[in-house]
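Lab notebook, design round three. We kept the backbone fixed and only want residue identities now. Task for the bench partner: fill in a sequence for the structure below.
Input structure tokens:
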């Protein structure tokens, strides 16, 4: 009985987040909503923070690492026109939640995580959630994983100063990167393209997220 009650509560919490937070705030892509509804967010949150798994805030999962708030994540996905036959790269997957949702939207997901403990946690979580079309790789975030690409979609978990060229060059023609770019301390959720080596950045909406280390702009010295 307790197992049934727990499962029912998790489903109710997800539905409340969708009805009370996502739908009223322009998350209109039905496939994105369905994918989020299929994944138990609580399973990817540390035990001591499960009670706040569905609040509209970033959740700390390790030192200096955070799960993106659900509204920013859902709105980014909704803007990408994601197709079922696509290949996605999930950069800095943390505990695997973003990869799990992406796995319901695309054909296959490559999830990279440079923190070995988090990559092991993500692997376990994704196996527990039967996400068998996701491969978790312990690898440097800014390098991406070119040998598994090129990718139709790259998702970056966290606010960054700029998109590394290595990731831009791992996009397919027509591919796009979803990220939050830091502009003078303000976050801009953006869709980035790199067709014919021409960089395109479309600002989608204002959003804030903890900064993801390793993506800082290089300082330029003036002599």
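Proposed sequence:
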């Amino acid at each position: 009985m307790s197992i049934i009650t727990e499962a029912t509560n998790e489903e109710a919490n997800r539905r409340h987040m969708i009805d009370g937070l996502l739908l009223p705030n322009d998350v209109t892509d039905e496939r994105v909503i369905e994918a989020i509804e299929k994944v138990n967010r609580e399973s990817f949150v540390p035990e001591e923070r499960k009670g706040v798994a569905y609040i509209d805030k970033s959740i700390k999962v390790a030192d200096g690492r955070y799960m993106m708030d659900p509204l920013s994540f859902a709105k980014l996905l909704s803007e990408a026109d994601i197709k079922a036959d696509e290949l996605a790269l999930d950069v800095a997957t943390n505990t695997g939640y973003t990869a799990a949702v992406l796995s319901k939207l695309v054909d296959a997901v490559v999830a990279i995580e440079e923190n070995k403990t988090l990559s092991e946690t993500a692997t376990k979580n994704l196996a527990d959630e039967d996400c068998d079309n996701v491969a978790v790789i312990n690898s440097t975030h800014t390098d991406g994983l070119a040998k598994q690409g090129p990718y139709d979609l790259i998702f970056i978990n966290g606010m960054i100063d700029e998109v590394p060229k290595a990731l831009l060059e791992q996009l397919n023609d027509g591919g796009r990167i979803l990220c939050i770019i830091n502009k003078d301390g303000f976050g801009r959720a953006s869709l980035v393209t790199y067709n014919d080596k021409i960089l395109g950045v479309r600002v989608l909406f204002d959003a804030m997220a903890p900064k993801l280390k390793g993506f800082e702009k290089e300082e330029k010295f003036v002599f």
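Keep this in mind before ordering anything: The domain at 2-206 is CATH 3.40.50.150 (Rossmann fold).
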